[in-house]
Amino acid sequence: MSETLLSVSDVSINKGLRQLLRGVDFTVKSGEIWQLRGGNGVGKTSLLRAMAGLARVEVFGAINRCEDMLYSGHATALKGALSARDNLLSHPSGMGMPTSAEVDEALGRVKLQGYEEAKAGRLSAGQKRRVALARLFLPSGRLWLLDEPFTALDVLGVKILEERFIEHADAGGAVVFTSHQPADLGDRLNLLNLEQFSGE
User: Fold this and answer.
1) What is the pLDDT of residue 92?
2) CATH number belonging to the domain at 4-68+142-197, selected among 3.60.40.10, 3.40.50.300, 3.30.470.20, 3.40.50.2000
3) Ranges of residues in the chain whose predicted pLDDT is under 50
4) Would you state the pLDDT for residue 93?
């Protein structure tokens, strides 16, 4: 039986004197995958941060979410002087501290075998993104809020991430993400076009 992990009710977002969004309503249940769509500046990131409780803008309305949550911003948040492994050990995903073996397995899942000791600062943009996404293969929250997770990924990286979304949803989790590109998730994908809630 599906469980509500996130509800957004009549939410409006103001940034200074500008209203980004108004009257946003949707509910995310376990097993669901949602994509927030809209043009640049429409408020996708602001809404995602508001749902995570990290808003830097005025938020009106009601947002209720489960406590078991993982938020990942647009930036990879990697420390260039640390290895791929140490970055994941220093910034664990979810509630528990991963072991080195778990981290190495996660890096393997994103096709970064052999890069465990590589300094993050020397990796390509795509490799850095894969290190960041390896966090999704560590113990993590049921509700994922991800800002532009497909950025800088090649075709294989995109496929790995899409398959991970489905795997997480099938395990009773839920995913909400922003992206400028369409995801190939078939009927598993729920689309929320934020243009219709634009305050402009």
Assistant:
1) 55
2) 3.40.50.300
3) none
4) 52
